[in-house]
Amino acid sequence: MLSGKSKTFDWTSRLGIASTIAEALAFMHQELGQHGIIHGNMKSSNILLNNNMEPFISEYGTMPKDDHQQSSTFATPIANDAFKGDVYGFGVILLELLTGKLVKNDGIDLTDWVQSVVREEWTGEVFDRSLLKEYASEERMVNMLQVAIRCVNSSLEARPSMNQVVLMINTIKDEEEKSLIYQV
Fold first, then answer.
1. CB-based contact 86:75 (threshold 8 Å)
2. What is the CATH classification number for the domain harbouring 16?
């Protein structure tokens, strides 16, 4: 989705793509079938864009949620772990949208790099320069970065559900849309 030959997305497009993907994943997790569907391999190369730059999730798994199956190591439902794995993958996609970088770019792990920059309080350095050039709202970009960081948290329990992610992203999107109305 964000390869070197791809079109540069403006902030509003990136926000819309993030919102659409989040809503689709939340729908898969909560609404499809009796127990939900886990993607199982959420990454940017599994997000396809049509001619209108609308995202579609591809290559999703059909592993149904099974609350009774337990992991022998952690004694937590495997499916819930897999749902949280989807959340992590989505968080990485958000980081790619915000930074304009791929997961493994020049041997640097994107999640580690972003977290180290944020720890050093240089948060503005993580954002794609094209977003800064278009004067995208740094406050809303920081809010989206915070969502991404919550999604890639190393603790499964600390990661939000996709429904929570949808609420956070749509709040940011609503703020963006209101600011655009006031600019006119």
1. no
2. 1.10.510.10
In a domain, 4, yes or no: no
CB 152 within 8 A of CB 95: yes
What was the pLDDT predicted at 76? Answer: 39
Residue 32: predicted pLDDT: 64
Give me the residues paired with residue 184 across strands: none
Backbone angles phi, psi at 63, to 5 degrees: -75, 105
The C-alpha atoms of residue 66 and residue 78 are separated, in whole angstroms, by 8
Q: What is the pLDDT of residue 94?
A: 97
Residues 6 or more apart whose CB falls under 8 angstroms from that of 174 comprise none
Domain that holds residue 35: 11-183
pLDDT at 8: 55
Look up residue 145 and give its two tokens.
């970065």
58 φ, ψ (degrees, to nearest 5): -120, 170
pLDDT at 85: 92
Number of domains in the chain: 1
d(CA 133, CA 122): 18
**Residue 1 in domain:** no
Nearby residues of 143 by Cβ (< 8 Å), 6 or more positions away: 168, 172
Mean pLDDT per block of 10 residues along the chain (184 residues) reads 55 95 93 75 92 89 49 45 91 95 74 89 88 88 96 95 97 91 69
> How far is Cα 34 from Cα 149, in angstroms, rounded to an integer?
30
